[in-house]
Design brief:
By secondary structure, this protein is α/β, with parallel strands linked by helices. It has helices spanning about 20-30, 50-60, 85-90, 100-105, 125-135, 165-175, 190-200, 235-245, 260-270, 310-315, 335-340, 370-385, 395, 405-410; strands at about 1-5, 15, 40, 65, 70-75, 85, 110, 135-140, 145-150, 155-160, 180-185, 205-210, 215-220, 225-230, 250-255, 275, 280-285, 295, 320-325, 345-350, 350-355, 365, 385-390, 415-420. Bound molecules: uridine-diphosphate-2(N-acetylglucosaminyl) butyric acid (EPU). Uridine-diphosphate-2(N-acetylglucosaminyl) butyric acid binds near residues 165 and 305.
Length: about 425
């Protein structure tokens, strides 16, 4: 077990490159199952979640090979199994994303039920509703979900009650090789959905409208592997932008698509941060004197839930009152108790957190309760008085490529050491 030890107080400056997007890559790796020839994926970050989904594919009989520095080669010419076991799905809920592809490729899939997780119950009813609409028979039992469509899937009109990212991705994958047309209404519009559609279309799928509120999928007989470069990680970029803001720093981030970060940039500007955008990235500067801002998380293009905890750390040290409302997940305030241990003044009422900015946080041992909570604690540690020790960093390793190296490049005093 390891922890991060951060000594606060350094103003960050310099330049780093943002890695490929975890949440685009996971469904894209799952979609590779649909290709009957190998796929080559580029800009692959070094992340635990990528290793986990690669293990899932390996379990299904596919070959996944990493080629340095950042390429993944997936040979999906043969599949030996259509079942994803509990040990892997338990490790990462997103393993459930292989269901749509398996159903499309093999006409059947058996996946362990993901169960609860740190940020809420996260049901999968919308995924299942989509598969059923496409003609799959769903059977639940012994902790597994089995979907069967021995005669293949058939296109359908599907309305999502909530624009779930995962359900949209799973349905797009399953519908790509269904017979006829699928019309998906009220889908998620996240950039990661568009990247998945781009990849599937390069594989031979016929998907239009990804990124809007209606996606049309014309089923094709089969897909082949493809070469694809994954989009930059907007949440990693947003996290480093907040790092510049919170430390009164001056950071340049390369490989950023600013159009994916509009609400984050708007809120940073509202707080008094200077953000200069150009074609390849952003420069983020802050005098350290910031104003409080209110935030409400929403599906894209609203403010991303995955940036909520990082903004809360920023507001915790910004004089005045700010209000953060979480509407996407029902239990995503677990960083609050840890921030309070560092001296933050935060009160939770239902889905709303009211933050009274304090002059200074103080370093102490804290625990990352999930990936973004971990990022928020690292950010708080960068400005806290003295040393902050962040434990349970396996959560951070799931989604931040070389976090220590990147922060050290920017001048942070952060090291990774064994616990105990
Ligand atoms: N929901 C349902 N039924 C469903 C599916 C979702 O009620 O069948 C609910 C969830 O319980 C939740 C809300 O809908 O309250 C949003 O869930 P969604 O399905 O959109 O999220 P996801 O696909 O499980 C992805 C990201 C998350 C990110 C969310 C929202 C991946 C692998 N994960 O999760 O990323 O927070 O979309 O943008 O893409 C992270 O990176 O830290 C992370 C948690």
């Amino acid at each position: 077990m390891e922890k991060l030890v951060i000594t606060g107080g350094n103003r960050l400056s310099g330049a780093i490159k943002i890695s490929g997007a975890k949440n685009a890559l996971l469904p894209i790796i799952a979609a590779s199952i649909l290709g009957k020839t190998p796929s080559i994926l580029q800009e692959i970050p070094d992340l635990e979640d990528v290793r986990t989904i690669s293990e899932v594919l390996h379990e299904l009989g596919l070959t996944v090979r990493r080629e340095e520095p950042d390429t993944l080669v997936i040979d999906s010419s043969s599949i030996s199994k259509c079942e994803a076991p509990y040990e892997l799905v338990r490790k990462m809920r997103a393993s459930f994303l292989v269901m749509g592809s398996l159903l499309g490729r093999c006409g059947q899939a058996k996946i362990s039920l993901p169960g609860g997780c740190a940020i809420g119950t996260r049901p999968i009813d919308l995924h299942l509703k989509g598969f059923e609409a496409l003609g799959a028979e769903i059977v639940l039992g012994h902790g597994y979900i089995e979907a069967r469509a021995p005669q293949g899937l058939t296109g359908a009109r599907i309305y999502l009650d909530f624009p779930s990212v995962g359900a949209t991705e799973n349905i797009m994958m399953a519908a790509s090789t269904a017979k006829g047309q699928t019309i998906l209404e009220n889908p998620a519009e996240e950039p990661e959905i568009v990247d998945l559609a781009t990849y599937l279309n390069t594989m031979g799928a016929r998907i239009r409208g990804a990124g809007t509120n209606v996606i049309k999928i014309e089923g094709v007989a089969e897909l082949r592997g493809a070469t694809h470069t994954v989009i930059p990680d907007r949440i990693e970029a947003g996290t480093y932008m907040v790092a510049a803001a919170i430390t009164g720093g001056d950071i340049r981030l390369d490989n950023v698509l600013v159009e994916h970060l509009k609400p984050v940039i708007a809120k940073l500007k509202e707080a008094g941060v200077t953000v200069d955008e150009d074609i390849n990235g952003v420069r983020v500067r802050s005098s350290g004197k910031l104003k409080p801002v209110d935030i409400k998380t929403l599906p894209y293009p609203g403010f991303p839930t995955d940036m909520q905890s990082q903004f809360m750390s920023l507001m915790a040290v910004t004089a005045g009152t700010s209000v953060v409302t979480e509407t996407v997940f029902e239990n995503r305030f677990m960083h609050v108790d840890e921030l309070k241990r560092m001296g933050a003044h935060i009160k939770i009422e239902g889905r709303t957190a009211v933050i009274e900015g304090v002059g200074k946080l103080t370093g102490c041992p804290v625990k990352a309760t999930d990936l973004r909570a971990g990022a928020a604690l690292v950010l708080a540690g960068l400005v806290a008085d003295g040393q902050t020790e962040v434990g349970c960093i396996h959560h951070i390793d799931r989604g931040y490529d070389n976090l220590v190296g990147k922060f050290r490049t920017l001048g942070a005093d952060i090291v990774r050491t064994p616990t105990g």
